[in-house]
Amino acid sequence: MACKTTLEEWNYAIEMLKRCALPKMKNEVFPLLKFSYDNLPNATMKCCFLYCCLYPEDYCIPKKRLVEYWFCEGLLDKFDRINEAQMQGGDIISSLLNACLLERDGEDCVKMHDVIRDMALWITRKFEATENTFFVKAGAQLSQEPYVKAWERVKRMSVMKNEIQLLKETPKCPNLRTLFLSNNKLEVISDGFFQFIPHLTVLDLSENYYLRVLPKGISQLVSLECIDLSWTGISELPMELKSLTKLKMLDLRYMSHLEYIPQYLVSSFSKLQIFRLWFEWSLPQTKDYPNEDNVLNEGNEKLIEELKGLKRLNILSTPIKSMFCLERYLSFDLFRRRTQALQLTDFREPEMFDVLCLGNLERLETLQFIDCGIMEIKMEKLSTWVSSSSNSPSCFHALSTIQVFQCKKLRDMTWLILAPNLRNLDIIWCYEMEAILSEEKLGEVAGVIGISHPKPFLKLETLYLRHLPKLKSIYRDALPFPCLKHILIMYCEELKKLPLNSDSAKGNLLSIKGSKDWWARVEWENEATRDAFLPSFKLWY
């Protein structure tokens, strides 16, 4: 009712509520809540709302992933490209938030209040338009797959966050379009399981760490548009996946056992719009995409060649190993416009990596460095960049997350001043790191970009600094940190001062985690400041 402003609208609402005669919590509470649902402006928004009840209670639902599932399921029918559909999805999420049917859970997630979720499930069971279209046993502590006859007629099914190990049945589900099997203990899926699910469009198998093999029967899912295999133990992608000619989204992140991607498999998905490949710490040793320390890095080359032929590609997350492959990658306009996340691994040559070469990746949001050399900015290049009328002094506007792992020669990260919208910074095992923002280099950069007193980290929400034994400084002065929520300091014995004063992080529920010994050594501008941040401190272990 937040947007209802006239007496007539409120009187109408009262009359409609009076007419509700549904049986007691269901009698008294759900009809009140359903009034907000009934007042959603269209069927699309109602379907998108009900889709959220597929997730377990209190679940942090990533907004981007939710919109991608809506898109692949065909709920966002105004656009046929994901980057445009994200605008429609974002508008729907905003409307559901304004109607108090969803709640914010940080910047990137939403959640459903338990009672709202119960009401949504009640709607899926009790009303003709949605009756028997949902089967939801998410987080229900199931150890076996549900009785097949109970879900053969449904359209959307979720048994995520359970302990199911085996899927042995051969269900006949002519209407099923979305199937959430994520976060179970799946080890085996029978070859016949997918045989009679002809209209399945969204399949989430993520977080099944013990699942080593995909069944050959997956080739029967000819309508599939989205498959999420992230965080699974699958060691190779079967050639049978070539049958999935309608595939729009393929997520292969954090598949630590992945050894084999058949050549020309990825390029066969001509409708692919979202492709994510991301490894933990290093690229795997693969047959067709080998992880070899050579100049050409054959595996990356083959993958780049396959990806560049996918003309519909809109969202791309990929690992790159070697400067040669990065230069080739950046030479394609498709990648410069579509890359959302980039993982740079083992960049030891050249010894100094000029991060400004990534400045033309206009949609780059996540950047990860693993076992790389020194990252710097060449001032003459920065000067040329700034002087160009088409460029902003801050060339990493979209960049929100940076992770730096095991870059042993790295001394500072002063180039971060060029990422004004950075929200998450995680640096670990950089043994030569002395300062996050070097005072000397910061003066040089500030002079070139024409900002005499830069204010870094205005959007920063999380700061994780671990195993940096030489780190002495984050920034020379105290910063306002209007968005900061979490600081984690581990094994940074020389870091004795935080860039905080009595005005920092005002109004935030700031959490500072570290060791008791480290906290005792932290120096503050005065006792009042120390006392103000004392309630924020927690032991990290």
TrEMBL record:
Keywords: Leucine-rich repeat, Plant defense, Repeat. Residues 54-120 form the Disease resistance protein winged helix domain. SUPFAM superfamilies: L domain-like. Residues 377-498 form the Disease resistance protein At4g27190-like leucine-rich repeats domain. GO terms for biological process: defense response. This is Disease resistance protein.
